[in-house]
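Researcher: Quick test of sequence recovery. Tokens follow.
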């Protein structure tokens, strides 16, 4: 993520990097069972997976706060997110996707949800540092390792 020049990352490089991570998340696990049968549903499923995984590390409330902030920021540029809601301790976590697809279309909904995930990656990077954020997010991209899971899904210590 660092540029070769001065060791610092420009805002445009950081956005491109966050966007690539969001796209990898969306491509990383869309299946019919998770709702990955359309781009918007795949983006929502990626958000649900990311919420479950990050909740293990930063807690449900902290993770929900990050998602809520990312959603609020993304709504300013993407009115398609107006009916999207986040529900802690519920499946799916990201709700209102079907209604938004009907009202706004799948491409606009997918773009808006991707933008929310980009904002989430950026927020997490600002809070805990880009390297640590990438490590936590990449856990979502990796196939589950049963030895890495806690038996009761409690928050784990980093």
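Model:
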């Amino acid at each position: 993520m660092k540029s070769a020049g001065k060791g610092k990352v420009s805002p445009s490089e950081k956005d491109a990097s966050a966007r690539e991570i969001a796209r990898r998340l969306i491509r990383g696990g869309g299946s019919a069972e998770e709702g990955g049968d359309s781009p918007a549903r795949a983006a929502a499923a990626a958000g649900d997976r990311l919420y479950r995984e990050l909740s293990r590390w930063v807690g449900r409330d902290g993770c929900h706060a990050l998602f809520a902030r990312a959603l609020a920021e993304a709504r300013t540029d993407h009115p398609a997110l107006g009916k999207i809601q986040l529900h802690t301790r519920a499946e799916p976590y990201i709700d209102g996707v079907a209604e938004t697809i009907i009202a706004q279309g799948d491409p606009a909904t997918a773009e808006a949800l991707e933008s929310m995930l980009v904002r989430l990656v950026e927020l997490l990077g600002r809070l805990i540092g880009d390297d640590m954020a990438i490590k936590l997010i990449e856990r979502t991209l990796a196939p589950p390792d049963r030895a890495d899971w806690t038996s009761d899904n409690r928050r784990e210590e980093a």
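The CA atoms of residues 57 and 156 lie 5 Å apart.
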